[in-house]
Amino acid sequence: MNPFWQPSGWPPPSDSRPRILLLGASGFVGGGLWTSLTPRHEVVGTYATRPLPGLVRLDLRDEPRLAALAAGGFDLIVHAAGLVPLEAAEADPALAHRLNVRPVEVLLDAVRGSATKLLLLSSDNVFDGTRSRYTEDDPRSPVNVYGRTKTAAEDLLLAEGGHLIVRIPLVFGRGPWANTFLDRLAGPTTAARTDLVCAPVYLPSIGPALARLWDRTGVVHYGGADVLTRFALMSAVRRALRLPTRVVPTEGGSGCRRPPRLVLRSTRHTLLGPGLDEALAHLAA
Length: 285
What we know:
The protein is an alpha/beta fold. It has 9 helices and 14 strands. The longest helix is centred in the middle third of the chain and has 16 residues, at 145-160.
């Protein structure tokens, strides 16, 4: 493995290797976590609709099943499941709440009084995008349904105490099963916005970073090193992979409001995702 995305000191010492329940292991980010964590940890992963070898089926709306799994004696539950597309959340706020907020309530009820810790993957969309950068201490002000559901889920964990929220930005890379990011570049043309600025993080770096952070509680940010527009990111990926698509610059959009500038930085640790050039060299290898 290329060591550039492995934080200093990786792997963690043997006494910090918990038994993990990974919710959403069949997804894009969840699949990246599954690939990273399973060689070093005992991991039980879940899928919703796409049967995959080694994963167990779970519909987040099946609350008895979710509660039973959560109560299975895990040291850590990594919650990487839910309704992610911003447009889908905007179109059906009730479903977004049902998949992004209610499962956290069920999980908290299931693990209360036990030693199990919850780690919720949250989003930079809890912010409104009006600041040059955001740290863990900045006030949240979501402008879309997805961001509001993530804020509500965070509030549940923060009120309980003892758990961890890791906010991540736009994730790029190649997933083992779902290729949500690269699928955007599958057509003859790819529209990419020049008015949205991000600090994207490379998928393979997230698992090692979480392993360095999961002993913490409260909120931490994990973002990418480089700050660029969506158009610049898509153009760089197209060049690195020599994809036949043509990336077309656009401004504005439909479906839901998006924060114009989302740059996550941390005051609580020094980890950053790899630079874009390093990440793309790894992706293209």
